[in-house]
Amino acid sequence: QSRINMPLMERAKAATNPLAQRLLTLMDRKKSNLCVAVDTQSSVELISMAEKLGPYICLLKTHIDIIDDFSKETIQKLKELSEKHDFLLFEDRKFADIGNTVKMQYKGGVHNICDWAHLVTAHPVAGPGVLQGLCKAGLRDDRGCVIIAEMSSSGNLNTPAYIEDSIKIGNSFGGFVIGYVCQSSIDVDAGVILFTPGVSLDASSDSLGQQYVTPETAVNEKGADVVIVGRGITGSENPVERAEQYRKRCYDALCKRFES
Ligand code: S5P
């Protein structure tokens, strides 16, 4: 049995990374492989979405540096809601610099990301140093990283060789890297998690290069375990109803895949 058709709890058992185990177990318990991307500049809106959508998601993805009215209270509330509604916090910082710089970006500044974000993203373009740097700041059981191996946007520079090398780098940091953001069903161990953004039921693209597929295409053809949805939910008239619709379509597709 491979990652593709193994049920979540079997994969949790196969996972060597404690945070990957925790996320796979959470996905099974909540019947959700939906990560919502709340890309808003208002902390009130961010907290309100986290409160409303919390019951339907396994992860809340933030871009904390776009918040205009950021304060420590924003983080305090996110932490409380993460516990109340049983989801993990995923800061999509896309670290991409030399190790020494990302170490400071991870634990310093006003955002102090490693204090609160269970997961962060990193581009491996600078080489393994980016992960060495992040590990220096935050290697503990409830902190992990998702490597951006392949982007959803048109014209991206992620060649097959880049994707393959990204996975090699990620695999050599198995204690910290829990999975990959990608657009294809790359070959990874059963305990490793694939995340796929660029999913919408309404649009096939936006005006700035984003490209969308349906939840079923993401899970079946692109091998997604976790589906990342932003504006398809947050930009709709009824985000709660929409979140439940996405949750169900994403989770049903995943369960069907186990049975295949
Ligand atoms: O390849 C990628 C990687 C990421 S993390 N493509 C993406 O779109 N993302 C992020 O997913 C992006 O930064 C945004 O937060 C989210 C997609 O948002 P949507 O509104 O287009 O669904």
TrEMBL record:
Signal peptide: none annotated. GO terms for molecular function: orotate phosphoribosyltransferase activity; orotidine-5'-phosphate decarboxylase activity. Substrate binds at D39, K61, S152, Q210, G230, R231. Keywords: Decarboxylase, Glycosyltransferase, Lyase, Multifunctional enzyme, Pyrimidine biosynthesis, Transferase. Its EC number is 2.4.2.10, 4.1.1.23. GO terms for biological process: 'de novo' pyrimidine nucleobase biosynthetic process; 'de novo' UMP biosynthetic process. Pathway: Pyrimidine metabolism; UMP biosynthesis via de novo pathway; UMP from orotate: step 1/2; Pyrimidine metabolism; UMP biosynthesis via de novo pathway; UMP from orotate: step 2/2. The active site is at D92, K94, D97. Residues 33-246 form the Orotidine 5'-phosphate decarboxylase domain. In the N-terminal section; belongs to the purine/pyrimidine phosphoribosyltransferase family. This is Uridine 5'-monophosphate synthase. It comes from Armadillidium nasatum. The lineage of its organism: Eukaryota, Metazoa, Ecdysozoa, Arthropoda, Crustacea.
